[in-house]
Structure formats: C-alpha cells, structure tokens
Amino acid sequence: MAEPYYLTTAIHYPNGKPHIGHAYETIAADVIARFQRLRGREVRFQTGTDEHGLKMAQKARDLGMAPRELADEMSGHFKELFDVLNISYDRFIRTTDADHHNASQAIWQAMEAKGDLYLDRYEGWYSVRDEAYYDEKELVEGEGGEKLSPQGTPVEWTEEETWFFRLSNYAEPLLALLNTPGFLEPASRRNEMIAFVERGLQDLSVSRTSFDWGVKVPDSDGHVMYVWVDALTNYITGVGYPDGGELWDKFWPADLHLIGKDIVRFHTIYWPAFLMSAGLALPKKVFGHGFLLNRGVKESKSLGNVTDPMELAERFGVDALRYFLLAEVTFGQDGSYSAEALVNKVNAELANSFGNLAQRTLSMIAKNMDGTLERFDSSVDDRALLVKVHEACADILPREFDQLAFSIGIEAWLRAVYACNAYVDEQAPWALKKTDPERMKAVLQTLFIAIRDLAIAIQPVVPEKSVAVLDQLGIPADRRAYADLSDDGWFEALVAGGHAIDPPKPVFPRLELPSEEP
Ligand code: ME8
C-alpha cells in the first residue's frame, strides 16, 4: 500500500493578481508533490485562496466591488495561473466554500468546548496588510516617526469586544513542539519562534465585530472569525473535517505545510495551539521558504517592478521558469531573479547541455542505427559513466529532494549531464561510425540509458519537457518512477531487444531575451 503524503501551500490573498512569490511557492510545492508521487507515495496536494478578512473587505470597498465579487475575480486568476504552471493540485480550496465555513465553525466549537474561548475587550495594534495583531513592544518606528509592524506595514489602534483564545495556556507544549527536530525547517527559523514563546504568550483575539466579511462565529451575533482562524483551518477542511472519512483517515495530519518565512508564526504557534485545543493531531512539518526578489529588490507596486508570473511563463515557457526557480535559489533562503539570469541559466543547462545531449544522441541512433537498439558489450568507460549517472539520478537527487534541497539535487543531476557530454566528446561516436561501428553502437546505447535516467530523475521539475524526452525514448508511462531506475532487468531487456525509436524533435529551444530587455 502506498504511504499517503499530504502537502499544502499557504492559501493566497486574492486582493490582487498573483505575483511571482505566489508562483514560486506553488511551483516548489508541485515539485514536491510530483517527486513524492514518483517515489510511490499517494499524494494529496492542496492550494487555494484566503478570501476573508479586513484586507479583502477594504480592497473591495476601494474598488467599489462587493468582497465576494473581488474574491471570485482574483481567485480565478490564481487558479488560471496554477493551471498554466502545470500545478498538479488535488483541491483548489476557497475559504468561501461552504464546507470550509462548516469546518471553521466546527473547530471553533471544539476550542470553545475545551474552555479555550472567552469574550473580552481587545485594545491594541492591528496591521491590515499582515492581518495580524502586534504588541506595542514589537512595533518599530517608520521614517516619519510613525508606528509600523515588524514587517514594516502600517498599524492601527483597535478597540472592540472580541472573543479570545487562551494561547497563554499552550506555551509549554508549543516549546516542546518547536524543539522537536524536523518540525520547523529550516532550523534557522526556530530560534525566533522559541524566543517569541519565551517572551510570554498573550491570549489571541480571534473575532471581529467591526466588519462582517468572514466566517460567522457560532451563536455570537455580530462576530466574524479573525481571518487567520478560518484561513489555517483550510488545511483540515480539505481532508474532510469535521465529518472524517477516508481522506481524513488517510491524510491528516499533514506531512508538510509549505509557506513563506513571513507567516511562520501563524503556522508554528497559532495553528498547533488551535489543533491541540480541538484535540486534533499536529502537522509533521512546516517549512518556511525564503522570498524571491527582483534583481535583489522586493517587488512593490510603488517601485513599478512587479512581475506578472503569467507573462514570464508565456514568454519563456513553464518548464524553463520552474527549472530556473528551483535550480537557482537555495531553498529556504531568499533568492533573486531576472529575465537575463533565467535565459542564461536555462540556455546553458537545459538547451545546450541536456537538450543538446538528448537531441544529438537520438538523432545519431535514428540515423546510424536505423533507430533500433540491440545487445551491446560495454566498456569500462561506459560502465563508469552509467554508475555516475545512476548515482546522481537514483541516489543523490532523490535524497536531496526529500530534504527539500532542490538546488543541490539539481546540481548533482547537472554534473551527470556534463559527464555525459564529456563522454560524447571523448568517445566521438561520429568518428567511430567509420572506424568501429560496433563501438559506436555501444556508445550511443550507453547514452540512451543515461538520458533515460536523467529524464526520469528531473520529471518533478520539468514535467512537460521530461515527458517529451521519455516519449521520444519510447519509455512506457508506467516505467517512469524512481524505483524503475533500479529495476535493471526490464530495462536491459528493452535495450537489448531491438527497441526502436523515431527521429527526435528538439525539446529544449534556446531562449532569446526580448530586445527591450537590458
Ligand atoms: O500570507 N517570495 O497570503 P499571501 C516568496 N493568506 N514567497 C512569497 C513572496 C515572495 N516575494 N511574497 C509572498 C498569506 N510569498 C495568507 C496565508 S495560509 C493559511 C494564509 C508567500 O497571498 C507568502 O510567504 O500574502 C505566503 O506563504 C504565500 O506567498 C501567500 O502569501
């Protein structure tokens, strides 16, 4: 039986169109989902939009729209982008979905039944941009002397009667959780969270009365839930809470919540506390990835440097964008991107190295071997190359991807591609054609095997391109998993048994920078 694997992204605020950070997080999650499927896990992958709260309500008001209308329009842009980016989600959840309201009210009632909710007066600072409450001592001073949140966003003084959650009761189990190896990664994010708990946890205001765009608090007229209570609950809505059932039994607790570094507090303090209060199991891991910067600078509307990820995907191709983001950025740290960096990297590594290797080899097989493989005697060099490629594809890349160290895994893969190209140059099959045609066949078949390994291994990152290569190699769709890399008997028989391929078509075009680009 395949072991289940449940992974989620943050759900995105649809108060505007998606930006490159949303694309980055969701692509990374998709790489994980595809990777785990290829390892034989039964994956459930959820993403979606976080549609309630003051930020959405205010944005809609500014635009003269109803919040629901804004949510519908923008959520549609997110879904469209994720479909274009080839995101293999199982559910795109919207917090306005009926089952989500139901789940949020159910977790509320469970927390209330535990005695963790009480009514009181809230007085304090609130950032609409972060949808977060802050203590006076957390605030920083802006350039004009104004008070700002630690994220640098404006805060406003708020006073209202709200429900409170007894967060202060959970300091001890939260510290134990934060100290559990593997729960919060990268480990560098742990200290900040531990320090936050150790400073003393205040009870959390969890409802609002000054607006009504949210999930209604059960039996409490005029109160809607604080948007983060309902937002975090999306992770259990999607697997059948509160009714339970097959999805619930199989997939909760989640294996991984993938989120950005700015919302680690919500996921490693508030969310586990809510779950503990409701008597539910805790997620196994929260990973806080870094931020993507445009040439080293955070994108913002005022700087006019906002990139539309849809445009990038259309201009350079989805797989080029996916490869660049995963190969370029050390996962967990901030990363920088630009059109020229993307074009240079993708041309050097995919078009000129892997693409060229596949195209050259398959053309020579088509031309000089009638497109047909046969049994061959391998030399020491052939075997050395295949050992190296196999190690990169079947051992190193999967091991690193399992640790979410994508760029390191891809680097090992790329070194194997370079080794193949060096082997082509050394062996010079085009010269062997005249001097030793049998040896030429052995070289081309060795390369055929290597390309199969390389294409299988890189599937999570460039799904469309690797499928095209595997199709050209004639590898059946049910022989493309990681385990197939080590199932030698079947593959040896295929290569030895007169396996025929068609002349190849180029899969990795060279990219051009548009002329207006500096
Ligand atoms: O925070 N680079 O939504 P959001 C990388 N609705 N990642 C980035 C980024 C950037 N430049 N900018 C944002 C929310 N992100 C809440 C989440 S979850 C129950 C609720 C990441 O639309 C950000 O860190 O502001 C977050 O993980 C995700 O994009 C959605 O951000």
From TrEMBL:
CDD domains: Anticodon_Ia_Met (cd07957), MetRS_core (cd00814). GO terms for molecular function: methionine-tRNA ligase activity. It is found in: Cytoplasm. It catalyses: tRNA(Met) + L-methionine + ATP = L-methionyl-tRNA(Met) + AMP + diphosphate. It comes from the Bacteria. The keyword Ribonucleoprotein does not apply. Residues 413-511 form the Methionyl-tRNA synthetase anticodon-binding domain. Keywords: Aminoacyl-tRNA synthetase, ATP-binding, Cytoplasm, Ligase, Nucleotide-binding, Protein biosynthesis. Coiled coil: none annotated. Monomer. HAMAP family: Met_tRNA_synth_type2. Belongs to the class-I aminoacyl-tRNA synthetase family. MetG type 2B subfamily. Is required not only for elongation of protein synthesis but also for the initiation of all mRNA translation through initiator tRNA(fMet) aminoacylation. This is Methionine--tRNA ligase. It comes from Qipengyuania qiaonensis.
